[in-house]
Write the structure tokens for this entry.
Amino acid sequence: MAAERVALEQVKRFYFADLCYAGQSHHLQLAIPLGDDLIPQLRADFIAMHKQLYGHAVDSPIRFVNLRVVHTVAADEVTPHWRTTPGTGAGNPLKGARSVSLPDLPSPIEAQVFDRTSMPAGMTIAGPFIAEQEDSTILVGPGWEAVVAGDGSLVITNSTLSRSECHQ
């Protein structure tokens, strides 16, 4: 989370254990109660949950399947540094073209290839095209159109629908 610029005090941690009776493969997920007597408390919680879900529980050995810690942070507390900043328009974002095969088409088609970080805000591109960036590749097929929004995101719409159909 430090790499994502999240302060430790913003992070909430949740602890879970997946438990099952020895010899069974179906497990139950339980919140781990932090504090003293952890194992006896987990066992009691497992037996109670098993009885509640299945109508019975037995005093048999229980095994740990998984232990998990989930870290969360509220979305409004995170700086959206991951957003793509639109390009300045100073350079040509077009990198070339590539042949692509799509499941609905009988043969490959030619698609323009763009550098995603060089696409300026307001740029509109009709598919088929490919937008490449460091961490992902976006394929926009025929019949679709993308506009680069002010925050750098691509707004992709079906260009075969009328504008009124898109906004209903």
